[in-house]
User: Fold this.
Amino acid sequence: MSSDSSFDGIRERARLGRYPIRGGGARRAVPAFDDLTFLTASASRYPLEGYREACATRTVLGAANARDPVVLEIPITIAGMSFGALSAPAKEALGRAASEVGTATTTGDGGMTPEERMSSKTLVYQCLPSRYGFNPDDLRAADAIEVVLGQGAKPGGGGMLMGQKLGPRVAAMRTLPEGIDQRSACRHPDWTGPDDLRIKIEELREATDWRVPVFVKIGATRVYHDVRLAATAGADVVVVDGMQGGTGATQDVFIEHTGIPTLAAVRLAADALADFPDVKLIVSGGVRSGADVAKALALGADAVSVGMAALVALGCNDTVHDFGPASYAELGTTAGGCTACHTGGCPVGIATQSPALQARLDPVRGAERVANYLRAITMETTMLARACGKADVHHLEPEDLVALTVEAAAMARVPLAGTEWIPGR
Amino acid sequence: MCGITALQLRDADLRPRLGELMAAMMAQVAERGPDSAGITIYPDVRVLKGVGHPAALAAEWRLREMAGTQAVAHTRMATESAITAAHCHPFVVGDGLSLVHNGSFANHATIRRELLARGVPFDSDNDSEVAARFLAYRMAEGDGLEKALRLLCERFDGFYTLAVQTPDAFAVVRDVIACKPAIIAETAGWVAMASEYRALAVLPGIAAARVYEPEPEEVYLWTST
Assistant:
């Protein structure tokens, strides 16, 4: 009985007198892309040859409204993660990696840093409920704008940044006193629904002279309705972040008990956009491998975003590159299970504002690892697409998949493997 | 998995022999599609389809006795959908457009959903019908056959050699990889296309014909005279 993990939770709350806060995503097992498998080609369909038959990965976002649509060479972007939650070298490394492989990266709460702007060929600027660091100059320096309604780790909740990470630079950008615990707003003061949101989106388009696309990001809850409303309000791209999506600091109760799995969200979002052929869908939350990317695209996404995966590529929880286990122990955490992002005591220099810890992350070497990772999962995606006979990764479709569990079959609405049975159909 | 034959007669003297020539051509590609067969004969857009060996079907239809300006035929070895007359090519849709397909599309389910959402009806679950419906939809929207075929090349993934006839035209197009066979022959008297040369070898004047393999993603189009 003493090993019951719910008892650990009770003891932690009894000790703290408050709710636990941590970084990362949902830890519990939920139906996921791993519960699906591809029906690749053999006799009734023909596979493509990897060496000489092309499989396109180029993805264009926002072509209907923006004069300068976002053109991605790969269908994988880097999700919004704030300067504040992440160190400046980490943001720079993500920008360098995205630029090297021809994709976009995204700002986050607290605004845009010059390092990030300079290192990123395509930078998406988030417009968040907190308004921290949001200004017209950076807005006009962006390649796309992402209006954030919510996040998969905490749909319905606002961002958090603990006082340990509110150093002088972060505090100045957010016009906050140094060292206070910051709790961002859970809704933007300018809109409370799709009617006001439409006006906000028009305002952002006017401010940027209709040059760049406007994304709307939602945490996956009432996905069908929320995605339809985002599209109706004028979004060029809807970003849907499932419950496995990570965070730099959020109440554990949000991370584990809100939202729906990415697997279920992608299909609902694709349904919602059936009447909006020009609106593109980006899906995030627990995307780790090329198989995850290919499955998300098959279920209706035009692209995916990675957050945690990019940080892991950068060195999160790693002991191989520069950091031994001792560097974790001295900060009271453990390599492999570290979710201390919120404390600022990041052993690998990623989720910290401490100058000494930041120095552990070389942005150039880190960028190489992230770029390698993005290239590798793109190759895996095209490998699966070619094996399904597709000359473009976007031609993957739900009919290319079957499910290994009844739950996944019901959520993804593909047949249970070996049957024609889709639960509920 | 299938055999295609198509013939457009420029020489009016040959038109009484259209059925005879088509029956001879189909017999040469019967091994490629022994399950079932179908043919459209113009200018009347007469459609004949059936389950069984193509030679037996041609006899049953009395194909040899039929005259006409052009025809397109298909012998089928089914891939994913059932062996029934309804699943036989040609798929005849719109204003007398007939399409036959050798190959397998890789993204037809998505395109079918898009067409269904636009109110386009379907008769079967066959992937080739999606291509025929797509062409008819584009032509109803005002595109010519050549443009509609170019759009098909942009939108459809997978392997295909297509022969299409309308009351006014005959066209051939192949996918970018072009590994499903196709050969074209032209003389002053006719233009013909088949999956294999031996089906063209039965035509009168073949020795003097211009014979060539169609290039990938190039639309070949001949208007009816």
User: Anything to note?
Assistant: Chain A has 15 helices and 16 strands.
